[in-house]
Design brief:
The protein has 196 residues and is an alpha/beta fold. The chain has six helices and twelve strands. The protein has one domain: Class I glutamine amidotransferase (GATase) domain (Rossmann fold), CATH 3.40.50.
Length: 196
């Protein structure tokens, strides 16, 4: 298994370190040529979603990434990565990849609660959740499964091949969320077809 980690901006190094901890091969996706490499899943890290979206357009990667996700490539978006995947950004007219049926509020916790930690359940397992100027989900479509709620706000969800979280699991040393994504890849139709 090999994971591509978008590395145009943001906290991509920490995701690569987490994958190393799990003995999973990964590589940085920095330009359009990197999208031609073979990989089984994609991580969209936290960072500045507006900057990341602009860079994906400037580097002519947006449409190809969108197509790959729509064709079933498993993708995991954390914080800004969640915003990139959202079909609706509640407090912005701009969307990016817009492949997941979710509505997101950017910087939802405001300046006063810009960063905090919580311990809550992710798929029936308690995990540490660092929130850093985090978004949360205002609403989800009927095909979206809610995986975590903190203070009545949806902070993790899944739709088919797409997984999103508001928080930064790559900063905790806990591997639960990344393992969940790796299991998604192993169970995906895309991977199964390659094995046939």
């Amino acid at each position: 298994m090999k994971i591509g980690v978008l590395a145009v901006q943001g906290a991509f190094v920490e995701h690569i370190q987490m994958l190393n901890q799990l003995n999973v091969n990964s590589f940085e996706i920095r330009n359009k040529a990197d999208l031609k490499r073979q990989f089984d899943g994609l991580i969209l890290p936290g960072g500045e979603s507006t900057v990341m979206g602009k860079l994906l357009n400037d580097l002519d990667m947006m449409n190809q990434l969108r197509e790959q996700i729509q064709e079933g490539l498993p993708v995991f978006g954390t914080c800004a990565g969640m915003i990139l995947l959202a079909k609706i950004i509640d407090n912005s007219d701009i969307t990016h990849l817009a492949t997941m049926d979710i509505s997101v509020i950017r910087n939802a916790y405001g300046r006063q609660l810009g960063s905090f930690r919580a311990v809550s359940e992710f798929e029936n397992t308690k995990v540490t959740m660092p929130f850093i100027r985090a978004p949360y989900l205002k609403s989800v479509g009927k095909d979206v499964t809610i995986l975590s709620v903190v203070d009545e706000n949806i902070v993790a969800a899944k739709q088919e091949n797409q997984l999103v979280v508001s928080f930064h699991p790559e900063l905790t040393g806990e591997t639960v969320v990344h393992e969940y994504f790796l299991n998604m890849i192993e169970n995906s139709d895309k991977t199964n077809k390659k094995l046939l």
